[in-house]
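User:
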Amino acid sequence: MSDASTIAAITLPPELRPRDGRFGSGPSKVRPEAVAALAGASRSYLGTSHRQAGVRDVVRRMRDGLRELFALPDGYEVLLANGGTTSFWDAASFGLIERRAQHATIGEFSSKFAAVTAAAPHLEAPEVVASAPGATPVPCYADSNVDTYCFPHNETSTGVMMPVTRPSGATDGQIVLVDATSGAGGLRVHPREFDVYYFAPQKCFAGDGGLWLALCSPAAIERIARVKASGRWIPASLDLSIAVEQSRLQQTYNTPALATLFLMAEQVEWMLSLGGLEGCARRCDESAATIYGWAATRRFATPFVADELARSHVTATIDFEAVDADSVAATLRANGIVDVEPYRKLGRNQLRIALFPAIDTSDIEILTRAIDYIVERAGPQHP
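Assistant: Predicted structure:
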């Protein structure tokens, strides 16, 4: 019976080391080419005013690129502001939800947004449609007593994805908010199925955090204006009407991280060069087929999500049996293969592996062989 010290001492041969060993679910792998481009532009870009043309041109590149990537219809707008997805939840509770929301929760992060609206003193208690972590997600359903439907495209904590569709029977006066933090750019979506599709750069978009972006329909823009006109007090940093105004000027209300904006713009243009959203999604499909196909043929590994249609194509969660996944992750880390540990609060003996567009499918395949090598030499263990 091998112990953790034995497994940790395993050294992988060169052929079992991926070209790039970053498989984290966020922050994620940043393409070296994007970093090199930032370094090349640094003297004229970094350390300059975000109100001037140099930075605003980068914001314009990013917003125009997202409009093309997602094939946004006329009238849809790309908003951005500082703070990340958690800040957007707060902003949405102030500036998008009028009275009551319905949330479909399928894991840690979707539950956190529901907790935000439940705690907001100016909103009624939300309706929550909950699914157990890893289970087939139960979608939102039409309810005349809510004005906003909220659900994730991909649950980063569990590796569950769900389709983006408007609830059947939803009325024109109700809007759909989709948390696409880890799904945007790697999963297919049709703009007509959402009013707000929001995300951050540190997942599929291979950049740093500290920024949120939201693709907004005309109905969402109108909702923002109506809530603002109602007289509700909104902190300026969370005021979506200010985000609309500033985004149209190709800037943010307060100073952003310029490197984040640049890396995001570079990644969006690279994604367009792959064939747009469809090309990126196919790349993620191939990586998903590789990791789940491998797990299906191993005695010690099983996909955590039983429903094949709900298994994420951007974040794979793989359960281990009779093998200590923490020790496997530690050995991989010691060999330069990092951030495959599971989401801490899930508490499972598993690995979580990002399949974002910037991650080469060939590196996913090498990772599976590296895991085989470690398990074969470690022998059976008790998790």
